[in-house]
Amino acid sequence: MRKQYSLLISLLIIVLVLLTFLHLNGGFNSWILMNLTEFNTNSTESIILKEIHLPRTIMVLIAGSALSIAGLLMQTYFNNPLAGPSILGISSGSNLFVAITLMSSGIFSSNLSIISAAILGAIFFSFIILGFSLKVKSTTSLLIVGVMLSAFTSSIVQLIQADSTLDALRSFTIWNFGSVQQVQLDQIPMILFFFFIGFFSLIFLIKPLNLLVIGENQAEFLGLQPRKIRWILILITSIFTGLVTAFCGPISFVGLAVPNLVKLIFKTTNHKTLIIGTLIVGSLFLLICDLITYSLEDLISIPLNSITSLFGAPIIIWIIIRRKWND
């Protein structure tokens, strides 16, 4: 079984590397890497590659893996395959706090303040969902609460927009489309810093996550401290969700579709395998979606959020129908 997992992961990595180079090249319609025979920092190709393509590619890889892992953590903790940052309203919390930051006349709109606002918003709404989960035992009801929270925050954002300046409103509207194009090269080190904090924390959570699969009560009987793990999971999920939301805007269905897809592909509950698989498939999923936007840029500008929803929604519907058939 381990050989099968290793072979599958190796194949996925090969595909990921190939698609990464294609994305770095600028998609199917560009030949930046082909024309770059020697790296001259003053050449047009070098400037385009360094200032535009490189940060966009890095951000796609980070965003895809971060949102997917956040979704996996939520699904494991709530023991619900339909749990995810966007469905449970966690992304909406980031959205609200970033809206307040961006539309506050530019007073707090530095990189660090936007990241901080997005993470704090995710943490705040994670605790709200957690509070409801302690009272609401039905997973369906919990999902409805998440949808209602999203609708509530959307209303508040619209009220903020009504009293915002034209420049602030334009900045927020562009951000709200969901895109990796706005990320600049000098922002990448900060993004990588927050991402690796969350990712390396997962090393210590593999065993607790495997125990949570059998249920919180059973896991506690086996020595797990659910309250401690709960805090850590919320913090890591909020870092991942807030980080991506801060720089890319709201991106739907990645954190919901990818973990379910990985579970179907690998057919395991071992989170060591699931985390690695989710990291790779999440990056692949968003790379493919952004490659589509790359290919259509000459014809029309399509928000990345639209492409992820276009692919993500059918995947979730197929998974739900498949589970019903198996039952």
Give a description of the structure.
- With 327 residues, the chain is mostly helical.
- It has a single domain, classed as ABC transporter involved in vitamin B12 uptake, BtuC, CATH 1.10.3470.10.
- 76% of the residues lie in helices and 0% in strands.
- The protein contains 14 helices and no strands.
- It has helices at residues 2-25, 32-35, 44-78, 90-102, 111-135, 139-162, 166-176, 188-201, 206-212, 216-221, 226-248, 254-266, 271-296, 304-326.
- The radius of gyration is 20 Å and the shape is globular.
Structural class per helix/strand content? mainly alpha
Cα-atom radius of gyration: 20 Å
How far apart the termini lie comes to 26 Å
> Residue ranges: pLDDT <50 for 5 or more in a row?
none
pLDDT average, as an integer?
82
Instruction: Tell me the name of the CATH class.
Output: Mainly Alpha
The CATH architecture assignment turns out to be: Orthogonal Bundle
The domain count comes to: 1
Overall geometric form: globular
CATH topology name, in short, is ABC transporter involved in vitamin B12 uptake, BtuC
